[in-house]
Please model this.
Amino acid sequence: MSNTLLKVENLTKIFKVGMSKVIAVDDVSFGIDKNDSVSIVGESGSGKTTLANLILGVETLTSGSIKFENNELDFKNKELRKKIQFVQQNPLSSLNPKKTIYQTLELPLKIHQICPKKEIRDRVIKLLQYVDLNENYLERHPYSLSGGQRQRISIARALACEPEIIIFDEPTSALDVLIQLKILNLLAEIKEKLNLTYIFITHDLAVVRNISNKTIVMNKGKIVEMNNTKKVFESPESEYTKELIRSIPTITDAEEKSKP
Model:
């Protein structure tokens, strides 16, 4: 029995810009296994965000296929839609400022009929507990929270649908370093507890090293390298990957010497 949860085959996305065409994703294929934590990395314009949008159904593919548990992804299927959730880069722009945290978290529970109405409040409190927050946050609004707390609420909202895959777009880039570390540790704990599969879209290789077991490197819409993360960092094959790794800021001479 195959362990592959998500299979992408010969995926291509072409945008029409005026009279010309831009190939944003160029014949990309890969598989993601259950419980993987995969980082898709590359600089701006490499195609990684378009790739995430195709998996999420935000963009329609030009050619190729995306399969979830061997079934073609169909975003009209509500049951399938809740299996893949998304956490955005800037939680303030993705949380409704007029809604309380309780209202934000109860909405997906109602839409997907996750639990009976009388259990919604308990379920919302449980979601807060998953992200190390308590019921004191229920009646607060996003603007009264810190950046790290808002990101936790975004994660709790993604968890509400009981997904199998969560896609994170630069999940810690808007946070300071200490909060980043807390969020990454929290994500690792939740992943173990709930048996989740993660996909990270990021340009921050320091984050990649700490959180993912597999890394896909993209450049100009193509995959230039794909391997387990340790191997990508210790013996990168493509010149582009070597350049990316060399650009990671370092503090000590030892760290600098360990670069390819």
